[in-house]
Amino acid sequence: MSVRKELYQFTHGTKVWNFTSGVRTVTFGDVTYLPIPGLSRTAIEDEDINKCEIEVSLPHPYQLLNAENNEFTQVFLNKIYFESVRLTLLELIDNETLVLFKGRVTQPKFDDDSKQMTLICSTAESYQNRNILTRKFQRSCASKIYDRFCGLKFEEWAVSVTVTSVDGLSVFFTVNPTQVKDAEGKLVFEPDVPVLDEFGEPVLDENNDPVMQQGAPVMEVKSYPAGYFNRGLLKKDGVFTFIQDHSNGLRLYRQHIGLKSGDIVQLAPGCDQSLKLCESRFKNGVRYHGFPNMPSENPINNMIVR
């Protein structure tokens, strides 16, 4: 007799949680799905865009850990939640799987009376039913830094730092050494040095000249003035968090789950959406999506030529 099982995979950045609504652990495709008592979902209805969602219920409070002991519930306990958790729901029958649902968690809800956490999950089609603000005629740039319209690459501007302490939304750090680059953007190394044999003597080539090897990289620790990372991004484990302020350390917009002292993370500078900063810091004025020279008064109403 065939036994039907449902497998739930939640991802948040690089972190993954695998659960099953069955009573026993399920291993499929080298992935282990842990049984969660009370894990259930509503029926999947997909007749139209309005019904492209399901509700997944999990016990709360209850430890929902993955193999790395990362707590799943903690992701949703922020004051502000962003749609960064994705769900893939599989049906397993006779060692064959069928994808029942694939989407994102759009809203978490907690019910202390029923001791449940309910995750409202929507498919990509639900985006088509959302009211989307079109681009506005405004002085400031309408793009978000590092998005496809801005064109800047996060990786090219990111700085490696080590977190020294975390106090709520405040994060303190030290900048890690990086290799020096020359005026052309090429990495700088110490002068070449001869290759030595096991006796400490230079190794010679066929012309009896010493064989040379590239010298050690020239490293430096850069410093960044207060405000440099204002409105920038912090990245850890594939998850980005907005930086509100950079003065005495960083002030994050929301808690970055799992961030702790000793972590090595990436920071990238932000932009105040002005043409001045876009050009002076990023040399990206050609992609500026604002209208800094727009008139302060509507010429149609106030400047009609009589």
Topology:
Elements: E1 4-12, E2 15-20, E3 26-28, E4 31-35, E5 40-41, E6 53-59, E7 85-93, E8 96-111, E9 116-122, H1 154-157, E10 159-167, E11 170-175, E12 178-179, E13 193-194, E14 212-213, E15 219-220, E16 233-236, E17 239-247, E18 249-252, E19 264-268, H2 275-282, H3 299-302
Parallel strand pairs: 2-4
Antiparallel strand pairs: 1-2, 1-7, 3-4, 5-6, 6-9, 7-8, 8-9, 10-11, 10-19, 11-18, 12-15, 13-14, 16-17, 16-19, 17-18
What are the main properties of this structure?
306 residues; mainly beta; Thrombin, subunit H; 9-stranded mixed β-sheet; 6-stranded antiparallel barrel; 3 helices; 5% helix; 36% strand; extended
| CATH architecture descriptor text of the domain at 4-129 | Beta Barrel
Mean pLDDT: 85
Q: Helical proportion? A: under 10%
Total number of helices: 3
Task: Give the biggest beta sheet.
Answer: 9 strands, mixed
**Strand-residue proportion:** 35-45%
> What is the fold-level CATH name, i.e. the topology of the domain at 4-129?
Thrombin, subunit H
Secondary-structure element string:
EEEEEEEEEHEEEEEEEEEEHH
User: Numbering strands along the chain, what is their spatial order in the largest sheet?
Assistant: 3-4-2-1-7-8-9-6-5
First-last Cα distance? 88 Å
- The helix-and-strand class reads mainly beta
Describe the structure.
The protein is mainly beta. Among the domains are: about 130 residues, Thrombin, subunit H (Beta Barrel); about 45 residues, no CATH class. It has a nine-stranded mixed beta sheet, with no helix packed on it. It is extended.
Explain briefly what this protein structure is.
This protein is mainly beta.
